[in-house]
Model the fold of this input.
Amino acid sequence: MDGHEFLAERFEENRSRLKAVAYRMLGSTSEAEDAVQEAWIRLSRSDDRVIENLGGWLTTVVGRVCLDMLRSRRSRREEPLGTGAPEEHVAGPDLGDRPGTDPEQQALMADSVGLAMLVVLETLDPAERLAFVLHDMFAVPFDEIAGVVGRTPAATRQLASRARRRVQGVDPVPDPDLTRKREVVAAFLAAARDGDFDALVAVLDPDVVVRSDVGADGVGAPAPVRGADPVARQAMMFAPFARSAQQALVDGEPAVISTREGRRFSVLIFTVARGKVVEMSVINDPARLPGLDLTVLND
Done:
């Protein structure tokens, strides 16, 4: 058996689970098949020798593919599921084993949550949907999901929580701290614009961390920057762009959009706790920026 055949065999071992992930994300068997096929194409073009956990790698790739498909679907303003001629319903693929759940309970959970997901498709943000499906249905850790949606683990946990409330038919409770969070981000932005190092340090948590996004191949991301002083020094270099930056919301979280020659080139998403910036996620991948669900705010 040559290397390609061995890789194909290993992929087939994961196909059922990948199709389950894609089906629960997309609500369509045909689109799920397309997403799984795209995962195989990306795997066949990659160096599998550097992939330590093939199952996790494939789940991440399928998640990214589904996220792109959902965002494309939203941008085209397609009709929601349940209108027009609906696709024939077929039972969802086998979800595989989940710890602590017997097969009967697992099947009931899969069907009920899958149908609920179809119903709330048009009210669930793509990132929320992915976080909910991967974590609640497939037990993928938030640390791994964060890399798919380009958010911090804490922010990804919030995405899944909001999605869970919607699936359960409970309206999300407005975050009473959002105004305060925006004030903290505004203070950060003002300090960056003024090049005020002390003011930057004052608004940052001592253990703040800045993470940058990765491309579709999962490589090339700079190491995280940790600590108030290093992050403040990095923000000082951001000053020329901060003057034209705008505040925004990305998936309901405060963010700052930077532009160059009138075009967006970077989005900085903040996680604020206890009146301090504790984490920042930098998204500057040109392929991902157009798909962000963001709302520009007036300063």
